[in-house]
Amino acid sequence: MASHKPPKAILFDIGGVCTLSPMQGILDFERKHGVPTGWVNYAIRYSSPRGYWQRLERGEIKMAAEFFKGFTADLHNQDAWRDFQTNSRNEKKMLKDMANPTQLGDHVSLKAEAADSRPTENDLGAQSLDSLEPQQNDDSEMPSLSKLARDTTIGDPISLESEAVVEPSKSALNIYPQLLNKTPAPSSPLSRPEHALPSIPEIDGESLFWIMMGASRHTDPYTFPALQRLSKQSPRPILAALSNTVIYPPGHPWSKQDRSATTLESSNAFSFNPRDYFDLFIASAEVGMRKPSREIYELTLERVNDLDKQKGGQGVKAEDIVFLDDIGENLKTGRELGMRTIKVQLGKTWRAVKELESMLGPGVELLDDKTRRSKL
Q1: Which three-class secondary structure state does DSSP give residue 280?
Q2: What's phi and psi for 285, nearest 5 deg?
Q3: Which of 7, 69, 169, 337 has its C-alpha lying 20 to 30 A from 324's C-alpha?
Q4: How far is residue 277 from each of residues 70, 159, 228, 229, 324, measured CA to CA in Å?
């Protein structure tokens, strides 16, 4: 039976929740360079748990030449490409067989999902940008392409930008112009026999990585203001973050200024200072684990519970926590442990804020008046 008690703690993902999702940037990259929609996420997912992206997020490998070489290789895995093409053909055939043109919305193509993911002007309401994986022990089953279009399985890199961004931000261009000016070759046209495997798209992993990181410096127009309002309330629940992160090399403008300090010390990895909003922050690259691994959730529970007791509370159990994430698999692990969860949808993050309001109880308002009038 679902709990109706207000939560003692709220656990936030960062990328796709507090900051805007990298998914739109990936989709835009794929469109621009002729890469089949969903391939980048599929390739990264296929490489789990020992792929170079996952190793970087667990802090097992430095952000250096070895990582970029390995990440590029993961994006050119021939077995993954063969499975991707097979699944794509099968799913297209299934949708064609099942589609009923008189029933709108029953079967949504990847193209339609991608097109629907970009927020409209009406979606932004009063808050403009200017105003403010599989389980790691089981890689046997690959997801459908439509699921990959909904859930970005790369996790949530610590710096993310707008869902509407196509090009990298100016700050990123200033940092790595020689990388970001590379233009990946478009995928080869599918002018082959019906069952022949198309050529795998040529993608420079280093260029793609920095585009994703550079397109990542904007906070979400709905969830971040909600976090700001929550942080100013008194009394309020414990505010914690659980994020799959990366560590920038020393000297990088986005690297932490003080590595000897805690994870909440001054940092340029985000476009905001986590210390201003979170009581606790669990960063995957610093604890050697990443979502959706059960171990990182158990560590988070332990630390939230300890913090509550330090504040004079009776402790926090999983059912006392509300967890917001944009990836279904991450939420699944939270639910298995007993947490209440909220799915944050690409381009519709205001819905998650409204759901959080209802869980917090009467009198809690996290959306501004103009957004409330336009959305509710």
Answers
A1: strand
A2: -70, -15
A3: 169
A4: 35, 16, 7, 9, 15
pLDDT at 175 over 80: no
Task: Show the tokens assigned to 65.
Answer: 């030449």
> 84-123 as b/e, with b when 16 or more CB fall inside 10 Å?
bbebbeeeeeeeeeeeeeeeeeeeebbeebbeebebeeeb
Query: The tokens of 316 are what?
Result: 């926090």
Tokens of 48: 């789990």
Q: Quick one: pLDDT band at residue 282, thresholds 50, 70, 90?
A: very high
Strand ranges of the sheet holding 238-243, from the earlier edge strand across to the other edge: 280-283, 238-243, 9-12, 321-325, 340-343
Amino acid at 113: E
Q: Rounded CA gap, 34 and 295, in Å?
A: 38
Structure token digits, residue 59: 């802090």
Write out the two tokens for 358: 């209802």
217 DSSP β-pair partners: 160
Per the confidence metrics, is the pTM higher than 0.85? no
Q: Tokens representing 348?
A: 């519709």
Comparing CA positions, the residue from 251, 240, 372 lying closest to residue 316 is: 240
Phi-psi region of 280 (alpha: psi -120 to 50; beta: other; left: phi over 0): beta
Is residue 10 packed enough to be buried (19+ CB in 10 Å), middle (13-18) or exposed (0-12)?
buried
- For residue 114, which of 44, 54, 38 has the smallest C-alpha distance? 38
